[in-house]
Amino acid sequence: MLKVLIADDHPIVRKGLKQILEDNPEKIVTHEAADGREAVQKALNEDYDLVVMDIAMPHTNGLDALKELRTAKPLMPVLMLSMYPEEQYAVRTFKAGASGYLTKQNAPEELLQAINKVLSGGKYVSTSMAEKLADDLSTDAQGPLHEKLSDREFQVMCLIASGKSASEIAEKLFLSVKTVSTYRARILIKMDMKHNAELTYYAIKNALVD
Length: 210
Description:
Elements: E1 2-7, H1 11-22, E2 28-33, H2 36-45, E3 50-54, H3 62-72, E4 78-82, H4 86-95, E5 100-103, H5 107-119, H6 127-139, H7 151-161, H8 166-173, H9 177-190, H10 196-205
Parallel strand pairs: 1-2, 1-3, 3-4, 4-5
Helix pairs in contact: 2-3, 7-9, 7-10, 8-9
C-alpha cells in the first residue's frame, strides 16, 4: 500500500488527483496539503512513499518546500506538478532535487506513469522535454540567459513578461512592491537588458510564457 501526499492550493485539483490515484488497482492512501508550509510539516511528521506537489502555492511555494524536504528527507521522492510549461520550471525543479516534473494538462494521462517511474528510482519528464534538454546540452554548454537567475528572480521575470504589474506580482508572490522592484533591477542587470519589453521578447522567444 502506497502513502501519497498531494500538495496543491486548489481543492478541485487535489480532488481530481486523488480520484486518478484511487482509480488505480494498486491500493493508494492519499493525504492532502493546501500550501507549501503544510506540505513540509506533514511530510516531516509522516513517512510518505511520494509527495506530489504544485509549484505556485501560498506561504511557501513548491520550489522552496522541495528544497526543505530534500534537506530533511533526501530519499523521499517528490513529483512536481504544475500549470507552468516544462520549459519554465522543469530544469529548476530537477536542480532543486525533484524526481519528476509533470504539467497539470498532462496529469490525467501521465500521472500514474510518472509515479511508477519515480517510485522505481527513475526521473520523470516528458519525451519532448527530454529531447529538448539533450539538444540544449549538446548545443549550448553555457546555458540560456535565464539560468543565471535565482528561482525567485525567474518567477518575477516570467510574471513581468506575462504583463503583470509590480503590485500584481507582489500580491501573487506575497512580496512588497519595493522587493519586486529590487528583483526587477537584478534581473535586468543579470540578463544585460534595459526594459521590460526586452524581457518579454526574450521570454516569448524561449517559450517561457504563453
